[in-house]
């Protein structure tokens, strides 16, 4: 599996970009998976539902299965958060895994940046960032990709991963 990441501050456009790229890669016949790192607790379940009640009762894992999809919810309880390598090992084989987040991990990644958000660049402190995608041209030592040119960004990712 090839792995490529995207990093940036909130509201920079990471999710929208990744959504468009997944559609492009799948249209090319690639099998694509995604790992998104959330900095805050999240819950894909709702109080009162059977699966929620089973987790609350103490189940370590709860698997939901239907004719369209399946999902496993794993409760960490007092275990440490798994690192990216452990999460990658849990995925089914695919051609490309896109990563959203995991800024400090050594996976090559594009920084998605919008100057209007007033946030600093991540790349000066992060050697795994190999390009910057922004809605405004950015001068610097890294390649600049127009955030609105999805074809160019897709080509960059495919070239960087050897999938072109």
UniProtKB/TrEMBL annotation:
SUPFAM superfamilies: P-loop containing nucleoside triphosphate hydrolases (SSF52540). CDD domains: MobB. GO terms for molecular function: GTP binding. GO terms for biological process: Mo-molybdopterin cofactor biosynthetic process. Signal peptide: none annotated. Coiled coil: none annotated. Residues 3-135 form the Molybdopterin-guanine dinucleotide biosynthesis protein B (MobB) domain. This is Molybdopterin guanine dinucleotide biosynthesis accessory protein MobB.
């Amino acid at each position: 599996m090839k792995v490529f990441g995207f990093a940036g501050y909130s509201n920079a456009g990471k999710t929208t970009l990744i959504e468009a790229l997944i559609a492009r890669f799948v249209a090319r016949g690639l099998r694509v998976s995604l790992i998104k790192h959330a900095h805050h607790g999240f819950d894909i379940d709702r109080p009162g539902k059977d699966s929620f009640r089973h987790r609350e009762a103490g189940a370590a894992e709860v698997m939901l299965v239907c004719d369209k999809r399946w999902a496993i919810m794993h409760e960490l309880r007092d275990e440490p958060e798994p690192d990216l390598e452990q999460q990658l090992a849990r995925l089914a084989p695919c051609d490309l895994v896109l990563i959203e987040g995991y800024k400090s991990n050594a996976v090559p990644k594009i920084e998605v940046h919008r100057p209007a958000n007033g946030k600093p660049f991540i790349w000066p402190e992060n050697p795994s960032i190999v390009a910057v995608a922004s809605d405004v041209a950015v001068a610097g030592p890294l390649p600049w990709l127009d955030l609105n040119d999805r074809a160019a960004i897709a080509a960059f990712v495919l070239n960087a991963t050897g999938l072109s």
